[in-house]
């Protein structure tokens, strides 16, 4: 069941540059999307979210873009910092359900100083 | 800052044994969840719980699994007869409300190893 896909297992960028993490989904019933960050030995931490009625949401260095027609979302981190190095999970939810989150496989981001 | 806590951090058990994983959600949260992540795989939803009832459960959450809120603070996941394939990291999460827009806060996880 691959309803949410993150096709890039890893990404390496230089400090100060932009990091772009991508996510695709197949279920057209999804109407809320989230990004979580996970450090080793910790649980996922909420980063940013977007509702399907929007195409962009920004919070400081983090921006999420949603392209509903392509069923694609992306997370932009500008500028990237070494502390951003972590696993990033895309997740999706249907507002009609009980809060169940469907996660992608995750992308490991490494930001090099 | 309030956080979700989980105990134990690691649990090793023999196949066929029962295990109970414990979670203390954030105090004013009303919705509780269990997820698991098998090594190298994605985080998977197991169950959501509200008002002392299961709201939704996945296909993974079969009869060997059960959840309980035994008191006002703890939320537990019981696996009755563990199998090798139950080895995974188990995450508890909680949220104020059950809507998709309500942020779920995750605990640090319990790593379960079934031998």
Task: Kindly describe this structure.
The complex is a heterodimer of chains A (113) and B (115). Chain A is 0% helix and 53% strand. Chain A is built from no helices and eleven strands. The radius of gyration of chain A is 13 Å and the shape is globular. Chain B is mainly β and 115 residues long. Chain B is 0% helix and 50% strand. Chain B has no helices and eleven strands. Chain B has strands at 5-7, 10-13, 19-24, 31-37, 43-50, 53-57, 65-68, 75-79, 88-95, 105-106, 110-114. In chain B, strands 2, 4, 5, 6, 9, 10 and 11 form a seven-stranded mixed β-sheet that branches. Chain B has a four-stranded antiparallel β-sheet with strand order 1-3-8-7, with no helix packed on it. In chain B, a hairpin with a 2-residue loop joins strand 5 (43-50) and strand 6. Chain B starts with a strand and ends with a strand. Chain A binds chain B through residues 4, 31-32, 36, 41-46, 49, 51, 89, 91, 93-95, 97-106, and chain B through 4, 31, 33, 35, 41-45, 48, 50, 55-56, 58, 91, 93, 95, 98-109.
SSE blueprint:
The complex is a heterodimer of chains A (113) and B (115).
Chain A: E1 4-5, E2 10-14, E3 19-25, E4 32-38, E5 45-51, E6 56-59, E7 62-67, E8 72-77, E9 86-93, E10 102-103, E11 107-112
Parallel strand pairs in A: 2-11
Antiparallel strand pairs in A: 1-3, 3-8, 4-5, 4-9, 6-7, 7-8, 9-10, 9-11
Chain B: E1 5-7, E2 10-13, E3 19-24, E4 31-37, E5 43-50, E6 53-57, E7 65-68, E8 75-79, E9 88-95, E10 105-106, E11 110-114
Parallel strand pairs in B: 2-11
Antiparallel strand pairs in B: 1-3, 3-8, 4-5, 4-9, 5-6, 7-8, 9-10, 9-11
